[in-house]
Amino acid sequence: MKALEEFGRVRLSDTFFMRDFMYSEISAWHGIPNVPDDPDLAIAAGAALCKNLLEPLKDIFGHVTIRSAFRCAAVNDFGNKNGLNCASNEKDYARHIWDHRDAEGCMGATACIIIPWYIPHFERTGDWRPLAWFIHDHLPYSDMYFFPKLAAFNLTWHEKPRREIFSYANPQKGCLTRPGMDNHGGNHGDLYPGFPGA
Questions:
Q1: How are strands ordered across the β-sheet holding 153-158?
Q2: CA-to-CA distance for 181 and 157, rounded, in angstroms?
Q3: Is the pLDDT of residue 47 over 70?
Q4: Across residues 41-62, what is the average pLDDT?
Q5: How many folded domains does the chain comprise?
Q6: CB 165 within 8 A of CB 137
Q7: Which residues of 11-30 are buried (b: 16+ CB within 10 A; e: fewer)?
Q8: Is residue 196 part of a domain?
Q9: Residue 133: pLDDT above 90?
């Protein structure tokens, strides 16, 4: 327990600590410890996620709410096998499973986040796409997956970024953009008027 407590105190960036990313409803409810197999890799991947994506988002929009993030392989596997909205471990390596590299040997990390600054706009319009395009134009993300509630989305940093955006929510379920699509390049500032610095 003391080692886990110390692990939670690891500072990943200016304002984020490992403890911010370790809570899991699956872990808490089912009593499966959410403890990494490779703490050093989890720290390295989490630090890259924080420094490249979460700190810039916080600097632009203010508070960033973490919904879920790090899952150890045991927690993720239980969630997958019991229909709890977890992909297979193989698909979640270098995503929610920060402490395992993916099949290509790459490091990565995912956090499901909410941007409270954006919630009033989302409640008025039901449209998650302006936020997606803003991040696409400004930050070195790998992929984003948007959800129907509160414009929550999975945000991934990866050593080999894919630059893909998908959604499980209306008004545009499926793929918004990926390399090779006509809308992928250029600036999309006209799609997010009123954003900070836009």
A1: 65-68, 108-114, 153-158, 143-146, 164-167, 174-177
A2: 21
A3: yes
A4: 98
A5: 1
A6: no
A7: ebbeebbbebbbebebbeee
A8: no
A9: yes
Select from 109, 117, 98 the least CA-distant residue to 157.
109
Kindly calculate the radius of gyration of the chain based on its CA atoms and give it in whole angstroms. Answer: 17
Residue 148 has which token pair? 């129907």
Cross-strand bridge partners of residue 167: 146, 174
pLDDT average, residue stretch 154-171: 97
SS3 12: coil
Q: Kindly report the three-state secondary structure assignment for every residue of 49-115.
A: HHHHHHHHHHHHHCCCEEEECCCCHHHHHHHHHCCCCCCCHHHHECCCECCCCCCCCCCEEEEEEEC
**198 is a domain residue:** no
Which residues constitute the domain of residue 125? 2-191
Identify whether the C-beta of residue 142 lies closer than 8 Å to the C-beta of residue 158.
yes
pTM of the model: 0.95
Q: pLDDT of 88-130, one tens digit each?
A: 999 999 999 999 999 999 999 999 999 999 999 999 999 999 9
Average pLDDT of the chain to the nearest whole number: 95
CB 101 within 8 A of CB 36: no
109 occurs within a structural domain: yes
